[in-house]
Amino acid sequence: MTDATDTPTAPVAPVEAADPAADEARELVELVGSGWVRMYIGGRRYRLRRPFFGELRTLRTLHAENADEISGRSFQAQETGREIEAQGKALDAEEGLDPADKARQVQELRVRSLAVARQLTDDADDLRLEWWTKVFEVLNVDGVPDWWPGWIVDFRLPDKVVQHWRSAPLGPG
């Protein structure tokens, strides 16, 4: 009897090792024809079974809610960016300001702008990791990783996996 996860489709988002010795710790995501997902994290295989309808709805809803939250935070970050830009233009137009003081204020604006961008990235990464944690809690067959690689928060990966679950035909058996 063969495992339903033994029929792979094209690998998605492989991370190729630059060092041949790192092949032992390969990182790869495979969307399997039966609806399963195989992930290799730090050389260990993790299998995610295809979700039942209610599970898929829950995971898809959480993904959509997270995307909405990221979008809202992105809008807020853009508003803050416009405010910082306006302050920078006003500072640039201000005459008679000591050059050292002006340079200090410009640097403060840059630091503030970078902090907003970093916070948005961190928040988005946290929400994506929250989704993957839920996916592994619900669908894992081989346990949950002790650590998460950086590529797990790629914004395209959840969409590909959800689409795979929605379109994969039933496996053998």
What would a concise description of this structure say?
With 173 residues, the protein is α+β, with helices and mostly antiparallel strands. The chain has 3 helices and 4 strands.
Structure description:
This protein has three helices and four strands, in the order E-E-E-E-H-H-H. The longest helix is centred in the middle third of the chain and has 41 residues, at 53-93. The termini are close together. The radius of gyration is 22 Å and the shape is elongated. Residues 1-11 and 13-18 have low confidence and may be disordered. A four-stranded antiparallel beta sheet has the order 1-2-3-4, covered by helices on one side. It has helices at residues 53-93, 99-139, 157-167, and strands at 8-15, 27-32, 37-41, 44-48. With 173 residues, the chain is α+β, with helices and mostly antiparallel strands. Helices cover 54% and strands 14% of the residues. It has one domain.
Order of helices and strands: EEEEHHH
Number of helices: 3
Name the quaternary structure.
single chain
Low-pLDDT runs of 5+ residues are 1-11, 13-18
* Class based on secondary structure composition and strand pairing: alpha+beta
Domain count: the total is 1
Mean pLDDT: 85
As a percent range, the share of helical residues equals 40-55%
Largest sheet descriptor = 4 strands, antiparallel
Described by the principal axes of the CA atoms, the overall outline is elongated
Q: Tally of extended strands? A: 4
Radius of gyration: 22 Å
In the sheet with the most strands, the strands line up as 1-2-3-4
Distance between the termini: 10 Å
Tell me what portion of residues adopts beta-strand conformation.
Answer: 5-15%
